[in-house]
Amino acid sequence: MKFKAEIDVMPLDALLDPQGKAVTNSMINIGLPEIDGVRIGKHIRLFIDANDQLAAEQKVDDACKKLLANQIMESYTYKVIPA
Known about the structure:
By secondary structure, the chain is of the alpha+beta class. The chain has 2 helices and 3 strands; from the N terminus they run E-H-E-H-E.
C-alpha cells in the first residue's frame, strides 16, 4: 500500500530560534506588533510503500530519528494517511 506522511520539524522550545526571532522583530516594522513568538521549522511531505498503517508510521518515525530531525535541537510530529 501507498501512504503519505506530513512531517513537521520544529526547534525545541528551550532553544533560541534566530530565524523566528528575526521574523518576530520584523512584525513591528510591517505593522503587525500583535504577532509574537514566531518559531520557524520545516514541513516535509513524503510517500511510503508499506504493508499497513503501523508499518508506514514506523518507517516515518525511523526516517525522522535517523535523518530528518536532529533530536538534540528539534522535535517532530507526523501524520500518516493512505495515499
